[in-house]
Every structure is written in structure tokens, then in C-alpha cells.
């Protein structure tokens, strides 16, 4: 008994020393697992512009594009050019005279899911060249239906072109075609057709070979080069407003005085092996890149959303 009494103070002292320690968990107290590390800032959603840029990158990288076409990207600057024109994946877009489909291979996949891509070319009946060119283009579309989606093909009379219902397109683009219309005498009619088919606020994008500053149209029209002021006047006479111009497709190395005109340079090499290395070093032609906008129905200058 005395032994038990003598040990009691020691037990009480030990209990008192442990009273500052955290209580042991009991069945009534939940035990939480350690939280996982979270990113300091969550990744923000892509903006519409970022999403469009990523979609354009995928179109440019597509395996439906030939290596020879991809090799021309440094000369034609497709991404920068289309972004300058403000092309969006939801646009109703008409490409005028798409030729062998170089830009179609980019535009059709870009617009496939949420936009509408339309190709417009001179009718088969207008010339043997138009017929053979259109047949090759239709074959291209059929070959890559999975990549291109549903592409509408519009044929027009070059002398009296109609490209679709009035005020129906967001964007009209034409690449290296104005010089052909200028030589054929139907350039004014084409620009009027562009104006008619575009919605108020719609965009017309033009890329073409640029003549030397001060060159007269009559002196250079058969060379494939055009004075930039001449092209601007074609558009403004049709009712457009010049919104912007870019040097994206400029080439200062192009002297524009070649024996076979612009066709002396790549990719045509009209002189064959003659001075081939020289023209290869120059590269493709110096080109103007012009963005026009159709004013609103009230005549007020507007841009599309």
C-alpha cells in the first residue's frame, strides 16, 4: 500500500508533462490525407485567335500537302498572309481562280469544321485551259475529301462574273491572278464581282507580282508585274476601301527586269537551265499584299468582327 501511494505523485507528474502534446486521433476525429500539389496558376483557356492560329498550323503541317508545296512556304508566307487578311475558321470564304490548289490545301482544312470554303474559277466552256485546269482541281478535291471536307465549286463567265448570292461571303481571296485578268481586259469586272458577293464589312485580300515603283501599266502588263497603284485603283473603283498593305511577300532581290518577265523566276524558270542558279538565288517574285474592306450598307467604313 505504501509502495502504491509513493508512486502516485510520479504518475501525476508524467501525465502533466504530456498534457501539452497534441491529442492522439480517436475514432471520432477524421484523419485527412495530405493535399496534392496544385499549379500556382491554372492554364488559361485559349483565345479565339490562339485557337485559330493552332488550327492554321495543323493545316499547314497536313500530310495532304506535297513536299514541293511545303517547300514554297518561305516564299508565299501562308500563315502570315492569312493572319494579315484576318481569315477565321468560321468564315464563308471564296478563293478566286485557285489554280492547282496550292492555297486550297491550306484553306479547305482550316475552314472544314466551322466555316465554308468555296472555290471559284472560269467556266470550263470559257477556254481549253480553263477546262483542263478545272478538271485537275476537281480531281484534287476528290482525292483529299477527308482533309478538305465539302468544297463548293463555282464556275463563272470571265466577261460577266457572278460568284454567288449578293452579300453572302465574309472573305474573298485571290493569289497571283490579277495580272492575268489585267492582260485579258476583264480585271474591272472581276473586282466588281468581288464587291457584289461580299457582305458589308467583308474582306478582299489580294496578292500579286509588284512592278517597280513608277512603272506604267501599259509598259509592264505583259511581264506579269503590275503597278501597286493600279491594283489599288481597281479595288477602289469597285467600291472597296484600302484597309492595310503589308510587305510580308516582298522580295527586294527581285529586279523585275527579266527576259521572260515574272515567269523567268521560280517556280516557272521560263529560261530553263539558262542562268538557273542566278534566278534560284533571287527566289520568287516581289509581291504586293493588299487588304481591302467593303463599306457597310450605309456607306460607313466598317470591319468584320
Note down, in words, how this protein is organized.
The structure is a single chain. With 305 residues, this protein is an alpha/beta fold. The chain folds into two domains: 48-250 and 286-293, 3-Layer(aba) Sandwich (Rossmann fold), CATH 3.40.50.150; 253-285, no CATH class. Helix content is 37%, strand content 16%. It has a seven-stranded mixed β-sheet. Strand 1, helix 6 (104-111) and strand 2 (116-122) form a beta-alpha-beta unit. The termini are far apart. The model is unreliable at 1-27 (pLDDT under 50).
Question: Nutshell version of this structure?
Answer:
Helix content is 37%, strand content 16%.
The amount of beta strand, in percent, is: 15-25%
Structural class: alpha/beta
Lateral arrangement of strands in the main beta sheet: 3-2-1-4-5-7-6
Q: What's the number of domains?
A: 2
Tally of DSSP β-strands: 7
- Which fold does the CATH topology of the largest domain refer to? Rossmann fold
Report the top-level CATH class of the largest domain: Alpha Beta
Estimate the global geometry from the Cα principal axes.
globular
Per CATH, which architecture of the largest domain?
3-Layer(aba) Sandwich
Helix content: 25-40%
* Unreliable residue stretches: 1-27
Specify the biggest β-sheet. 7 strands, mixed
| Amino-to-carboxy terminus distance | 97 Å
For CATH, the homologous superfamily of the largest domain is named as: Vaccinia Virus protein VP39
Short key terms for the protein model shown above:
Rossmann fold; 16% strand; alpha/beta; disordered N terminus; 7-stranded mixed β-sheet; 305 residues
Amino acid at each position: 500500500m505504501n509502495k502504491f501511494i509513493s508512486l502516485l505523485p510520479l504518475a501525476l507528474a508524467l501525465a502533466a508533462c504530456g498534457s501539452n502534446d497534441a491529442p492522439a486521433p480517436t475514432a471520432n476525429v477524421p484523419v485527412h490525407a495530405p493535399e496534392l500539389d496544385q499549379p500556382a496558376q491554372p492554364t488559361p483557356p485559349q483565345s479565339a485567335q490562339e485557337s485559330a492560329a493552332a488550327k492554321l498550323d495543323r493545316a499547314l503541317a497536313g500530310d495532304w500537302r506535297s513536299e514541293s508545296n511545303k517547300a514554297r512556304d518561305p516564299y508565299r508566307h501562308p500563315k502570315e498572309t492569312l493572319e494579315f487578311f484576318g481569315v477565321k475558321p468560321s468564315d464563308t470564304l471564296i478563293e478566286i481562280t485557285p489554280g492547282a490548289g496550292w492555297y486550297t490545301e491550306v484553306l479547305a482544312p482550316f475552314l472544314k469544321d466551322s466555316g465554308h470554303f468555296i472555290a471559284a474559277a472560269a467556266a470550263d466552256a470559257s477556254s481549253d485551259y480553263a477546262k483542263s485546269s478545272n478538271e485537275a482541281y476537281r480531281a484534287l478535291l476528290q482525292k483529299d475529301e477527308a482533309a478538305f471536307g465539302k468544297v463548293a465549286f463555282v464556275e463563272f463567265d470571265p466577261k460577266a462574273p457572278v460568284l454567288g448570292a449578293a452579300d453572302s461571303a465574309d472573305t474573298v481571296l485571290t493569289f497571283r491572278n490579277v495580272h492575268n485578268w489585267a492582260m485579258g481586259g476583264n480585271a474591272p469586272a472581276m473586282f466588281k464581282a468581288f464587291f457584289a458577293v461580299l457582305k458589308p464589312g467583308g474582306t478582299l485580300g489580294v496578292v500579286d507580282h509588284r512592278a517597280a515603283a513608277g512603272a506604267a501599266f501599259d509598259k509592264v502588263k505583259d511581264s506579269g508585274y503590275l503597278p501597286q497603284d493600279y491594283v489599288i485603283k481597281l479595288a477602289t473603283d469597285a467600291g472597296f476601301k484600302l484597309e492595310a498593305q503589308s510587305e510580308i511577300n516582298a522580295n527586294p532581290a527581285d529586279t523585275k527586269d527579266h527576259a521572260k518577265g515574272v515567269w523567268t523566276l521560280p517556280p516557272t524558270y521560263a529560261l530553263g537551265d539558262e542562268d538557273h542558279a542566278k534566278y534560284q538565288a533571287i527566289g520568287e517574285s516581289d509581291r504586293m499584299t493588299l487588304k481591302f474592306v467593303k463599306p457597310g450598307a450605309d456607306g460607313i467604313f466598317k470591319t468584320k468582327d
